[in-house]
Specification:
The chain is about 65% helix and about 0% strand.
């Protein structure tokens, strides 16, 4: 079979065996970023100790919560540094891919259904846990942002006729290169806008300008990456991954010195403006390098779909939606029983994952809720006589 100059067969398959139109590695990384939400939230009583007073029935309170162990500080800050950055990059990548392949109408319908309706449903349920409705977004804040970005991008791409795409042999687009160069200064400006560290929306009306701009920029970076998607093949080369990995490790180590606390909790004020600027700059480099390192690693390792990949992709979104209450209850129980931080984290992650999977299979997968969360064409449940699509 003839191989084209860009390494792809005439039928669309790469010489290494994976299809040019499928990005299984990015699917896996997006799923991993979602499931890492359990790991990130498992120690939340340690980095937001004020929450403990709401779980006194489990034998915990703010004044009994110890400072996080050093290993746990590293884990929390590491996952916090790249997880949502990578997620929005991948979301922008797939948004432009869907727009080009299926059009603006399909993208808008899909995002309103899977993001908008899911946001209303899940945010409402969590908001009502305290007995009142005040528009709290909780852990669904990123869905709110992603819905806004997707609708704005659809309108922009439609108005500009057709987003320009680079030929697969041309390498990274100029837009992508420009966005990568601007990554660090944009992050520094966003940190400044939100008072020292980018913030997230706690309610529908609470849009933090720095955080909104930062994640919009990440979404745009992902769309530009799709336009110059040939660069993905360069990212998966071993020398490139080793170089990016070295930068990722070094930048995170330096950023860890300057950036403490999570979401403003237990955060100490910077000693000087230079400290704030240095911490912000290295946090940006760390977020970018870790995101692109993981993009390269997953794109290199996951070239074909299999049962495990499909299961993780199917499971990750609903498990993330369902996990927050179980993770709080389980961690509160384990802390209240006197377990140390390693046992609390490991136990909480495992039990919360199992509980969330059960919730998915009992309440979502085989019910009409799957039409909203998974999308009708991907749902197990179909109406009689309905034509299967996609």
């Amino acid at each position: 079979m003839k191989i084209q100059s860009d390494g792809y067969h005439a039928d669309g398959y790469h010489a290494d065996g994976y299809h040019a139109g499928r990005y299984h590695g990015l699917d896996v990384l997006r799923s991993f970023a979602m499931l890492m939400g359990i790991v990130f939230h498992a120690p939340q009583f340690y980095y937001i100790p004020e929450m403990a007073d709401g779980f006194r029935d489990f034998g915990i309170s703010t004044d009994m919560i110890p400072e996080m162990d050093f290993w746990l500080q590293i884990l929390v800050q590491w996952s916090h540094s790249w997880r949502m950055t990578a997620f929005f990059i991948i979301s922008g990548f797939f948004a432009l891919m869907v727009f080009q392949r299926k059009g603006a109408a399909h993208l808008v319908r899909d995002r309103i259904l899977r993001l908008g309706l899911t946001l209303i449903l899940v945010a409402f349920l969590y908001d009502m846990l305290d007995g009142r409705f005040d528009g709290t977004l909780s852990h669904t804040w990123f869905i709110y942002y992603l819905l806004i970005f997707s609708l704005m991008a659809s309108l922009f791409w439609t108005m500009t006729s057709s987003p320009s795409t680079e030929d697969r042999t041309s390498g990274p687009s100029r837009v992508l290169i420009g966005l990568l160069i601007a990554f660090v200064p944009v992050r520094m400006v966003c940190d400044l806008l939100d008072g020292g560290a980018i913030g997230i929306s706690m309610s529908y009306g609470d849009i933090r300008p720095g955080g909104f701009l930062y994640f919009a920029f990440r979404f745009l970076t992902g769309a530009a990456l799709f336009a110059g998607r040939h660069s993905l093949d360069k990212l998966r080369r071993r020398p490139v991954m080793l170089a990016i990995g070295a930068v990722a490790l070094a930048s995170f180590a330096i950023a860890f010195i300057y950036v403490d606390g999570v979401f403003g909790h237990r955060r100490t004020a910077s000693a000087s403006m230079s400290d704030a600027v240095t911490g912000s700059a290295f946090a940006a480099v760390s977020a970018l390098s870790w995101s692109f390192l993981l993009l390269g690693v997953t794109h290199a390792l996951v070239r074909r779909s299999n049962a495990l990949v499909r299961w993780l992709v199917e499971l990750s979104y609903p498990v993330y939606l369902a996990h927050l209450l179980p993770v709080m209850v389980v961690s509160a129980m384990l802390i209240g029983k006197g377990y140390g931080q390693p046992a609390v984290i490991v136990g909480t992650v495992i039990l919360t994952f199992l509980i969330s999977v059960i919730i998915y299979y009992v309440l979502i997968k085989f019910t009409p809720l799957s039409w909203i969360i998974n999308g009708y064409h991907k749902s197990w449940l179909k109406l009689p006589g309905a034509k299967k699509s996609g």
